[in-house]
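Give me the fold.
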Amino acid sequence: MNRPDESGQPGGAGEVGKFGAVDERCRAYATVARAIRFVRQQRASQPSLQEIAEHVGSSPFHLQRTFGVWAGISPKRFLQYLTSEHARSLLRAQHDVLGAAHAAGLSGPGRLHDLMVACDAVAPGEVRSLGAGLHLTYGFAATPFGRVIVGNTPRGLCHLQFTAADQDADAEAIAQLHAEWRHATLIRDDAALAAIVGRVFAAVHGQQALHLLLRGTNFQVKVWQALLNIAPGDVVSYATLATLIDHPRAQRAVGSALARNRLAVLIPCHRVIRENGDIGSYRWGSERKHALLAVEAARAADRQQQMY
C-alpha cells in the first residue's frame, strides 16, 4: 500500500483575475454563503440589503464590495438568480432546447464555460486494481467558491472536491482520495496543480482540451457525460436528464449517479434541479450550489447582452 507523500508546499491558484485575487475571492465566498443561507431562510419576507448585511456582520457598503470582489455583480442582481421563479423559467427554456435536440439526435461537445472537456473512462480492470502502478499528483487550492482538493493523473483529472480550510478537513480529504486509489502513489504538489484549478474557475478559457478521467459504472459515466452538454447558465431537471440518456424512468438512479460525482464543477451536477424549481441537494452544500448557478446565470446574461 502506498501512502500519500505530504511534502508538497501549501498554496493555490492565487493569481489576480478579472475580479481580484483568487485567495481574496475564496475568503469572500464565506460571507456570500452566509448571505445565501439567510436569504433562503427568510425568502418569504424578502429581506433588504440592510437586513442581509446586518445578518452577516457587515455594512451594506461593505457587502456590495464583497459581492463585487467575489463575482463582479451586485447583491441585488445576484439574489434575483436565487428565486424559484428564475429556476423554473430556465427549466422551461432548457426543456424546449434539449427536447428539440434530443428528437433530432443531436448532441454538442462537452463544454465547461468556453473550455473544451475530453473524457476518458477507467476500465473495469483498472477499478479493481485501485490505481496500482499509477502516479497521482494532488494538491489544495483556493477558488471563488471555497477551497478544493484536486487529483491529476497522466490520463486526466480524476478528483476535484470542495473541502474546509483546516487540518482535520485536509486529512479527511486526503484519506478519501487515498481510499479511492488505494494502490496508487500519491504525491502532493499544490503549485503544479494551481494553473489547472485556475482554468477550471476562470471566466475565460483557451481552446486546449482539459482531460478528465471518469471512474464509475457505465450508467454513471453516461449521466456525467450528458451533463457536459448543459451549458453554464442553464439547468435541467432530473426527469429531463434521465430522458436525455434514454432512461426516462431512472430518475432515482440519475440522482445516485450525481451523488457519486468526484469532479465538482467540471461535471456540472449543480445544474440539475427539481421539476418545481427547487434547487435540491448538493453534496458540497446547497449554498454553494446556489452560488455556482447564480454566477453562471449572471455571466450567461452578460454574454447574451454583448451579442446584441
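Residues 18-80 form one domain.
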